[in-house]
Amino acid sequence: IVPALGGLQRERLHRTVGFTLALPVKRAWLVFAQALLGLGQVAVLSALPLLLLSVSSWLADVSYPLEQMLRFGLLWLAGGTVLYAVAFLLATLFGSEYTALAASFVFMIFYPITVMFPPLSRYPLNVHHIMSGLAMPYFGANQALLVGAPPWVLLASMIAVAGMLIVLAVQIVEHRDYS
Length: 179
Known about the structure:
By secondary structure, the chain is mostly helical. The chain is built from seven helices and two strands, in the order H-H-H-H-H-H-E-E-H. It is globular.
C-alpha cells in the first residue's frame, strides 16, 4: 500500500504540483512512471521472502525446494500487484495520502469478507487466499506445498485487473484540474 501513496495529489496538498506539471512531460507519463516504480517495488518485496527463506533454510540446515519458493513468489507478485493497483487508484482519487492509506486498509479488511458471501464465494476472488494457496486446488495442505500447475489463467486475470486499475488512475489524473 505504501509505495502507491503520493503522486500529484500529495504534491497538490503541499502546493508543489505547479512545478511538477510545468515539466515538459505529459502528466500521464508522470503517473505511469510512478506506477512502474511502485510495481518494481512490489516485485522486490515479493522476492524478498524468497531470499530470506533461502538464507534461513540454509542456516537452520533445513531444505525447502527452490521451485516452491519461486512459485509462491509468483503468487505474491500477482496478488501484490492487484493490492498495489487498488491502493494506487485510491491515492489518485483522494486528496490526502492518509485518506488513501485508510481507504486501502479498509479495502484490505472488507474485500476478503465480501467475497466470502454468495454468489462471489463460488469464484477464486480472495487475493489473500490466492497468494497463500489457502483452500485453493493448487495447494496441498498435507505437505504445505504448491502442487500441480500454477493457476496461469487466474494470475493473468489478476495482472489484467491491476493493469486496468492503473490505466483508470492514469486517465483520472489526465483529466483532473490541479490548479
